[in-house]
Amino acid sequence: MTFIPREVPRVLSIAGTDPTGGAGLQADLKSVAAAGGYGMAVVTALVAQNTCGVRSVHTPPLSFLQEQFDAVTDDVVIDAVKIGMLGDTAITQLVSEWLQQVKPPVVVLDPVMVATSGDRLLTAEAEEAMRGLVETVGDVADLAVVTPNVPELAVLAGEGRAESLGEALAQGERVLATTQAAVLVKGGHLESETMTDTLLQRDADAATFTHPHVATPNTHGTGCSLSSGLATRIAQSGDVVRATQLTTDWLYGAIFHSDLLEVGKGHGPVFHGWETNPSCQ
Questions:
Q1: pLDDT > 90 fraction of the chain, expressed in percent and rounded
Q2: Catalytic-residue membership of 186
């Protein structure tokens, strides 16, 4: 497959929902739009959650998930895919099979296992299936990136949680050895005055993206927002490093301006539309 950049990429999010709009599919669609793409969505789970935490999860039948995939692929060309919350082994395996059939040119996998609130969003039994999916996305896509946070990186590596950037990078290298996909090691869960994200690729030097730490509780949906925005920007240019720089810059602004939203009583959402809001200029 030959990758062809597209100015307005058609981006499919495969993820769960958030009725308060800060994470999941809702955040993905906002992020895709902010990056200049056209967002679509396949629902893996209906999640009753808010900025304070997850209350319950309803998983539709696998047959309905397959019907959603069929409805999209029968009608629309997909330029990029973002994968978020999957929830269990059966869903993860179905998504893997679909990827192998469709072979989208760009895939960004956010291996959602733990929410910002600390709630577990992937069953323990599905962890091995998720490791298999990390390998699959590297095989099927022209350009693929895996974007775990520090706790998720530890699960993928089969190790304890990293306590320093050096430990996280070492785990990232071990995950990288299992897949052709790039691995974005996100430093948001590490104690530091700066936010350091590092893109690891097999045949290239590591690329580091550093931003000031923002003192705010509004980090709900940051992983969703980053991964969907990244998928869109990769599809626009084919330049993974440049797309990561643009996306992390945008996300820093979305976090920096998040206090303007005044949404929720817990970990509030980031401000996806900050670049076009007069109050942020």
A1: 82
A2: yes
